[in-house]
């Protein structure tokens, strides 16, 4: 069996571990367009902020490839996937045959079409080179403008602010993080950020980036000019599918995965930011480009590639962030349209909690200020448990797992894992 | 792998387990009198939940916290299988808190790290099991067999 993996981040690494847990012998070849292996994209903003060093970005030791007998081709771009001949072709023309292929090629930042976007000092934040570019020049930057109120942009803005840069965030929609927060929670985050000197302009868009060779400022749609030395574009990401020259592999928003993380073609699997999977919160197919999903999908794909029959239940969006000591976790559907949803909210001065339910099941949640035990909600969402009788309990500060044991027993087919089972069994020693 | 099992019928809600966990594992000075004055306050790793259920980390066979951790801070001890936080690299992103099914990972703002039970992996015997006066907590071998995907990956990260 010859395995080929395209992509060397979370999904690719996870797949290697899964394959090697079953098959220690077959050759695995891994191709990555990036030269630096095993760095955590999620942590790039922490690197910019100076909280961690470049070495601390690694999520696996550098010996990982040799320990797992993986032949890694780093800094090499795959030009084409050739399903007919079951091989891939590199930019230099070389071809590598496979028996099982995993496409874990990740995603790239969406490019914003604004005049002046090619000037020096305009960066998208996606890979380690982008972060390094910002770090190299951070001393010279007095003011930075972030275009877009998404998570990557906001994190980068927060990091720059911690480095003493004056940060202005330009958001087209009415509040930041519009994909993951509602108005109430977004206002709490905006309030905290503003208190710490970050300027957030909502309902505004940049129409031009000005300057000779380097960035000198931006022009907003209301005509205002803001002088700055750095522009960070954070307009979201899109799956990397450009090398799928043939249209034999089915692509919607991302490459469509079945329940085993296989594409529509035999022996070709997909995982991570590039994969479109069943979304447990919306009930539709969708791309959830987040780290934990990439890891789980990589494992499921890897196990199936190695011959184990494993099913992937589905993904859903979830994110955790902590700005200036104010933690926030958001998952699933957070803004509702239509009357099939029910929502419950509770707000205090420093905390906010919201649950979104559909047919008695949690399909979304936002927690601000107090996030402990958030994983219980995540698990109830993931396992699609009817929580109708527990809503006040889940909204309150008393929330805990032990009190949910009756609910777990009622749904015991969904809590079949040993970790759950052993909680409802009496210990043998104790009984004697 | 040995795990801590719970007999709620024997639990009298005395909180001896979390008190001693806080002193022995959470505190710097390991003496009750000193521990209660420590700043930041020591964090116990076991929670007496509901009316009578002391809950710890279950050391999941396929641990969502290890999956979610973006820099390998959440690790599995390759010899014992126990899941632990390698505190020096924890950046307090709370991704593990977001996914822990049991809600037993504490996002500690004052320690700036995720805090959870490692089943006293560096001691001979877990302190909570040791001190429980009614033997509601017992250290027992986990049953073999079914796990999340019918198997458990062996790895140190």
In order across it, which strands form the biggest sheet of chain B? 1-8
Q: What coarse outline of chain A follows from CA principal-axis ratios? A: globular
List the secondary-structure elements of chain B in sequence, H or E: EHHEEHEEHEEHE
Label the CATH architecture of the largest domain in chain A: 3-Layer(bba) Sandwich
CATH fold-level label of the largest domain in chain A: FAD/NAD(P)-binding domain
How much β-strand is present in the residues of chain B?
A: 15-25%
What is the molecular shape of chain B?
A: globular
- Can you tell me the CATH superfamily of the largest domain in chain A? FAD/NAD(P)-binding domain
Question: So how many helices of chain B?
Answer: 5
Describe the structure.
The complex is a heterodimer of chains A (432) and B (157). By secondary structure, chain A is an alpha/beta fold. Chain A has helices at 10-22, 44-49, 64-67, 128-137, 151-162, 183-195, 291-305, 374-382, 391-395, 405-410, 418-421, 428-431, and strands at residues 3-6, 28-32, 70-74, 78-82, 87-90, 95-97, 100-103, 107-109, 122-124, 143-147, 166-171, 199-202, 206-210, 217-220, 225-227, 230-233, 237-239, 255-256, 268-270, 275-278, 285-286, 318-323, 326-332, 341-347, 352-358, 361-368. In chain A, the strands form seven sheets. Chain A has a five-stranded parallel beta sheet with strand order 3-2-1-7-19. In chain A, strands 9-16-10-11-12 form a five-stranded parallel beta sheet, covered by helices on one side. In chain A, strands 22-23-26-25-24 form a five-stranded antiparallel beta sheet. In chain A, strand 4 and strand 5 (87-90) form a beta hairpin. Chain A is globular, with a radius of gyration of 23 Å. Chain B is an alpha+beta fold and 157 residues long. Chain B folds into two domains: 11-56 and 124-141, no CATH class; 57-116, Alpha-Beta Plaits. In chain B, the strands form four sheets. A two-stranded antiparallel sheet of chain B has the order 1-8. A two-stranded antiparallel ribbon of chain B has the order 2-3. A two-stranded antiparallel ribbon of chain B has the order 4-5. The model of chain B has no long low-confidence stretch (mean pLDDT 90). The chains are: A alpha/beta (432), B alpha+beta (157). Chains A and B meet through helix 1, helix 7, strand 22, strand 23 and helix 8 of A and strand 1, helix 3 and helix 4 of B.
